[in-house]
Write a structure and sequence with these properties.
Elements (H helix, E strand, L loop, with lengths): L15 H17 L2 H14 L1 E6 L15 E5 L5 H12 L3 E6 L12 H10 L9 H49 L15
Antiparallel strand pairs: 1-2, 1-3
Length: 196
């Protein structure tokens, strides 16, 4: 086995498991820092993923005002600003949990996300029933779940929040402008009423 060559107790690599774990961490970091790979996965997620809101267990009564979002999902790229801000407010108040569903086309989460296939294609990784294929597939899966998904979920939710806040500011500015530019009551005297 290839990993046996890297066993060295002086370097903290006591056995083949330690060697493979170390290699997995190195590859995971390398893959997670590949800008071109992240761009491909980000693009796929922005076009296909859903923003999912669920109620935190036991918070149903306390969070009644967020009831519309207790079991809510919609394409992340199309979330209207008012809904996005409501969901983020629910999360900040500890009522809602927000996550990204990378594979909304499935009723149940699949064993393998399509994003794992994007990663494998980007790396030119083909599985041919070789002895190390299971380990390679595990590295890709682990990289996706532990590094790439978490990073891009945070980034894309930040993008949604920023867009929603910008839109809210623009709506407020337009409304304020309309209010300030509206014709005043002018020289008209208000009607006077003296009697019962």
């Amino acid at each position: 086995m290839e990993a046996a060559k890297y066993i060295d107790g002086d370097k903290g690599v006591a056995d083949t498991k330690a060697a493979l774990d170390g290699a997995r961490y190195i590859l995971m970091e390398r893959f997670a820092e590949d800008a071109a790979l992240l761009a491909k996965v980000r693009d796929y997620l922005w076009k296909n993923a859903h923003l999912v809101a669920t109620v935190v267990s036991g918070k149903e009564e306390e969070g009644a005002k967020f009831r519309d979002y207790f079991d809510h999902h919609e394409p992340i790229a199309n979330v209207p600003s008012h809904r996005a801000l409501a969901m983020f407010r629910g999360r900040n108040e500890g009522i809602l949990q927000l996550s990204l569903n990378a594979d909304p086309q499935f009723d149940e989460p699949p064993k393998e996300s399509y994003c794992e296939q994007i990663i494998m294609d980007h790396l030119g990784l083909r599985l041919n029933n070789a002895p190390a294929d299971s380990w390679r597939k595990g590295v890709v899966s682990w990289t996706w779940r532990i590094k790439v998904l978490m990073h891009l979920e945070t980034e894309l939710m930040g993008t949604v929040r920023e867009r929603a806040e910008d839109e809210a500011i623009n709506v407020f500015a337009r409304n304020l402008h309309d209010l300030l530019m509206a014709a005043p009551a002018g020289l008209r005297r208000p009607a006077r009423h003296d009697g019962p």
